[in-house]
Write a structure and sequence with these properties.
The chain is an alpha+beta fold and 699 residues long. It folds into 6 domains: 82 residues, Orthogonal Bundle (Helix Hairpins), CATH 1.10.287; 250 residues, DNA ligase/mRNA capping enzyme (D-amino Acid Aminotransferase, Chain A, domain 1, 2-Layer Sandwich), CATH 3.30.470.30; 110 residues, Beta Barrel (OB fold (Dihydrolipoamide Acetyltransferase, E2P)); 71 residues, 5' to 3' exonuclease, C-terminal subdomain (DNA polymerase, domain 1, Orthogonal Bundle); 82 residues, 5' to 3' exonuclease, C-terminal subdomain (DNA polymerase, domain 1), CATH 1.10.150.20; 68 residues, BRCT domain (Rossmann fold, 3-Layer(aba) Sandwich). The strands form 6 sheets. It has a 5-stranded mixed sheet with strand order 2-11-10-3-9. A 5-stranded antiparallel sheet has the order 14-13-12-15-16. Strands 5-4-7-8 form a 4-stranded antiparallel sheet. The longest helix has 21 residues. Bound molecules: adenosine monophosphate (AMP) and zinc ion. Zinc ion (ZN) binds next to loops.
Length: 699
Amino acid sequence: MYSKEQQQQLNTLTLQLVKEAVTLSEAEKAKALRNVINYHDWRYYVLSEPVITDYDYDKLFAELKQLELSNPELQTPDSPTQRVARGLTSEFETVQHLVSMLSLENSYNEADLNDFDRKIKELTGNPEPEYCVEPKFDGSSIALVYENDLLIRAATRGDGTEGDDITNNAKALSSIPLRAPFSKYGIAKIEIRGEVIIQKHIFEKMNEERKAKGEKIFQNARNTASGSLRTKDPNESRARNLEAILYHISFAEDASGNNLLAGKLESHYHCIEILYDCGFKTPLHEMKVCRNMEEVHEFIQLWDKKRHTFNIDTDGMVVKVNSLKQQQQCGSTTHHPRWAIAYKFAAKQAHSKLLKVEFQVGRTGAVTPVAKIEPVPLAGVTISSISLHNEDFILEKDIHIGDTVIVERAGEVIPYIVGVVPDLRTGHEHKIHFPRHCPSCGSPLVKPEEEAVWRCDNADCPAQTEERAIHFVSKDAMNIDGCGRETVVEFIQRGFIKTIEDLYRLPYTEILGLEGWKEKSVNNLKAGIEDSKNRPLWRLLNALGIRHVGVTTSKDISSHIRSIFDLQKMSVEDLTNIEGIGPKVAQSIFDFFSNEGNIHLLHELKRLGVNTENRPEDALSKNNKLQGKTFLFTGSLQKFTRDRAKQLVEENGGKLLSGVSANLNYLVVGEDAGSKLAKAQKIPSIVVLNEDEFLKMIE
Ligand code: AMP
Ligand code: ZN
């Protein structure tokens, strides 16, 4: 869209305008303001890399508005002031699409895609067609028409032949350029298609704000996008942070009326490059040209994982024949083009039957209801057991034993119950009775007013001891090799472990005589236990299982103390002075260290050889947010120096690489990034970040 030189010129011009350091006629000034504001819109809304403060931007915008107000003849249709529409739309006009907007055929597995590939080869007579694969954006479709570089119309999909004219609303979306330099490609009239979406994090934020204001929350981003696009108040479209991503040129003509799609424009990829260059948001960085089906499958699999962290909802991928000539050879049915197919990711919802509910006592005494359901396969695993969180959750969702439940699991995420299907009730369902006594030790359960969970308060409750010991040995805690959940349970049952410190005085000779234990496994266990005496302090702190204290908090605290016993002397206030520790966490730590039994445990652990000190050699990384991730920085960084960048990566447990390779996870780009960026864009597994996005990762 803008060359490096142009960008430099516009940056300089911006500075001059902000500082009022140039003398221009009113007409020149209006033009200069239009140019720089449009440029900054592009940087902000398309690249997400603003180079101007909001304050300066607003100032320039106000100046342009004032100029146009006093000199209406200076106003142009592509002036950014035209994005702010006046008044409401009473009725949308119906308009005819230049080319009908079809649906996509769906596929659900590799075999479907292979069929598609076979058909394409038949239809085109080409044994090696190239495919472009890109995410299927889950939003609301839109068609934009530009004539002589100016946006003249925007329409919804409607019935595919005709849609609603939503030009005014579309103009409110700053990611849609009002003027786009298509003429440099010899294009006089063009119709382009895309999807209007709301980024996931913005959608979540919107809902949080609505909730805080007591307003009804939106169900999903897609419906919200399509609703906002058709709102009668265009300013609302802007307020709702809609964004347009363009992924198709459906019509392109030169000044003499020649169809460029049958000539000059060669491939889908080329079309996307043009759209990108003309200032649109496109899937250019998310798509791949594949030379065969193996590459297609591989890329889809990659995205099946990537989509969970991708900031836009996707429910699948779209596979398109890359060559436009071959696309024409394939043609379309009345319903969908034959040269494209959507691949839908595996369903993340399933139905099952709730068989019974078990109540489990956790290490802090919290009693959690766990649903046992008829095993059901979902997103790659079989699910038979799901947490129901607490009594309120059960009441709110009106869950009964015998109900048909809707189970959801997105990717690696823990499965949960979305709700029940009351229509499928037979009358044989019954209520879930929440126990008022601990299922393990029988003590009465208690529930503080403000909390949702019932708890067993008995410090000697066997279920709690078991969970505490299991947590103690676990990977994020003392990380004891050769000693997992089952071993702990067995030792508790045999009476070897009554309290945590018993882990450090196990009767190894006796264990060697037990069924299933051999010399090797006992030696392993012993080595694991011995080794764990030498862990950094934060691991011990986390292993204690103090409420609200996890890995991050443990690390925050341990870097502020010399010995675990320092915590015994700290007040709630002292604790809240540590960065990252709030009053709730502080109170919980204080309570833990005010308990004599806990102090006794710590002294015992120390006596048995467990490290309780913050040793200098343990002062490694602040946290491990970037653990195992590799980074490379390129371009001129604006927010921090190279050295600081390096330090940030290392402090957070990440690693720096010196060049772009398949081992690289993240490329962070500053201004004017060059060959490294180009190289990284060819490797689909590399995620390209700007400086802000990188900072967000370690926030
Ligand atoms: P469907 O409505 O499920 O038949 O899917 C077709 C729709 O998917 C199109 O009309 C577009 O609105 C939408 N879509 C989303 N992303 C893309 C994409 N990358 N390429 C083509 N269509 C897409
Ligand atoms: Zn109990």
